[in-house]
Every structure is written in C-alpha cells, then in structure tokens.
Design brief:
Helix content is 45%, strand content 11%. The strands form 2 sheets. Strands 2-1-8-7-6 form a 5-stranded antiparallel sheet. A 3-stranded antiparallel sheet has the order 3-5-4. A hairpin with a 3-residue loop joins strand 7 and strand 8. The radius of gyration is 18 Å and the shape is globular.
Length: 309
C-alpha cells in the first residue's frame, strides 16, 4: 500500500466530484423518515482526513447532515472502550443478509442480533453504553465533538421526533430482545437515547476527523488510546463485512474499504494507517446506501490504489 498520508487530496477530490457528477441527484432520500425526505438530493460533499490532522474537501463537505446509522460505529467504539469484549456475548459479528430493521433472525437466534450495525445490534450496543455511562446519547455526542474538533455538533430535534413518531419497528425489536433478557435498561429510555443518537448532525469534515482513530489503530485525536489495536481492527473488520446494510458484499467488492453508511446519505470509510474518508449525497439506492457516495468511494480506491486488499 503506497504511503500517501501527506498527499494533497484536493485535486483528487475535485476529479472524483467531476467523474461522478452524472450520478448526483440519483436515488431517493429516506422517505420513511419525513424529516429526511425533503432534503435536496442534488447535494454532494466529500472529505479526507489524513493522520496528521489535515482535512481536504470538495462540494458540500462542510454542510451538516443527519449522520443516522453512521453513529453506530462510534457508539460501538465507546462501548468496547468502556466495557471490553464482553459486548460480543450479546451481539454477533456476522452479516445479516436481511434488511437492517428485520425481526426475522432474532426469533431464530434467541434475541442475539447478527451484528452491531443492524438496528437490533445497535440497540444492544446503545443499551450497553447506557449501562456503562448513564447517558449514552450525551456521551456519544461529547466524544464526536472532541474527535471532530467541532464543539457545535449537536442533535436535530426534528429528526429525533420524526424517528420517535415512526419508530414502531425499533420498539418491537427492542421489546423482543428484552423478552430474551438481552436488554438491561427500560425500553422507552433506550429508544429515546437511540433516536437522539441517530439524529446527530455532522458534516463530511466532521465525520472524517471523528473517524481518524480507526485509521490510527485506536489512537484518539489527542494521542491517548481509546481502543487497543486489536479492538480497532475488530471494528474495521465488522464495518467491512456488515457496514452497508445488506449490500456489504457489493461494497467490499467495489470499494474494498471498511465503511459505514447511514440513510441520511452519508458514508464514512477507513484506510487503516493512512486516512479516513466521508462522503454525503442524500439520494439512496434500494438498499439504503448513497448512490453518488458509493460511486465516489469506488473512484477514490480506483484512482489511488488504496484498499485493504
């Protein structure tokens, strides 16, 4: 893998934006969350954060958007940092092959979610973080502010309310897992923290900075260690195999990087030992991933030769 950590990524990002321009506006914003359905699908931004703290961007890379499921990566990191590997007794590490909000596998597998990035698994992680910290959503928000070096990152109350109003399936999943003893906190409180977590707004610049600890093998922005190298590797591995809903195999084939997408149209991706990328475009494909975002990351790995393979 070439050493490009000190490269000026600006011209590369401009080329990528030009290459994928015909795809910007393709797809459909997340219509099942009304607060997201009205977002202008013609927006596109991309950022790269290198290991030295430099950030390069193109397009709408400084525009905040709803991070949604991307926050699951950071909640998982905090839960592992605070509580260790015992978390894996409550959630698996295998691709699900089913939609992210499916109930089907939980019944077959006694309330143990397949991985921490489907909704059931993310609820277990948030539940664990709530037990460990007493305030899961606020703990996550403060962590993201510190790692992104942006104290203005915050929750979007409209999105959180929209999630709550249309969160019946998440409530069903949580109650179902509670019936198997895999949820420790009261389900209503857990759901509230989960919906606030998903409502966090960040820009591509924020996400690229915040995710650098995964490219730095567990080291935070201030140089302290959040995760062991092994734990950072574990998260990157689960991102690669499970991070883009039930299209993770296609994403690994096309992009070849650990990545986590959200239905707000964002994707964060990691080149271990090199840099972190974030891309945003609200138009989603049938599996909930940004059409232009996946294409942009595909072009990045094609043009740079950077991947984990």
């Amino acid at each position: 893998m070439p050493d490009v950590a000190r490269t000026d990524y600006g011209p590369l990002l401009e080329r990528i934006a030009a290459d994928i321009a015909p795809l910007i506006g393709s797809g459909t914003p997340a219509e099942y969350i009304p607060a997201l359905a009205s977002v202008d699908r013609r927006q596109f931004g991309m950022a790269v954060a290198d290991l030295d703290g430099n950030v390069f961007g193109v397009g709408d890379w400084r525009v905040p958007f709803s991070a949604q499921s991307i926050t699951k990566v950071f909640a998982l990191a905090l839960a592992l940092a605070e509580g260790g590997d015992s978390l894996w007794e409550r959630v698996g590490r295998e691709p699900s092959g089913n939609p992210f909000n499916s109930l089907v596998q939980l019944e077959y597998e006694n309330g143990i979610p397949r991985n921490p990035f489907i909704n059931a698994g993310a609820l277990v992680v948030t539940d664990r973080l709530q037990t460990l910290t007493g305030d899961a959503s606020s703990e996550l928000l403060e962590f993201l502010r510190q790692e992104s070096q942006n104290p203005d990152i915050g929750f979007d109350a409209e999105v959180a309310a929209s999630e709550q109003e249309h969160g019946d399936r998440n409530a069903a999943v949580a109650h179902f897992m509670a019936s198997y003893g895999n949820i420790d906190n009261p389900v209503p409180a857990l759901l509230e923290h989960y919906f606030w977590q998903c409502s966090i707004e960040m820009s591509c610049a924020d996400l690229a900075r915040a995710g650098r600890f995964l490219a730095r093998h567990g080291l935070r922005a201030d140089g302290t260690r959040l995760l062991t190298r092994s734990e950072a590797k574990q998260i990157n591995a689960v991102m690669l195999t499970c991070g883009t809903y039930d299209a993770a195999g296609e994403f690994a084939y096309r992009v070849g990087l650990p990545g986590k997408s959200g239905v707000g149209g964002g994707i964060v991706a990691v080149v271990p030992g090199q840099c972190t990328l974030a891309v945003w475009s609200p138009g989603l494909d049938a599996r909930g991933n940004s059409v232009a975002g996946v294409a942009a990351l595909d072009r990045f790995t094609t043009l740079t030769g950077l991947s984990v393979f």
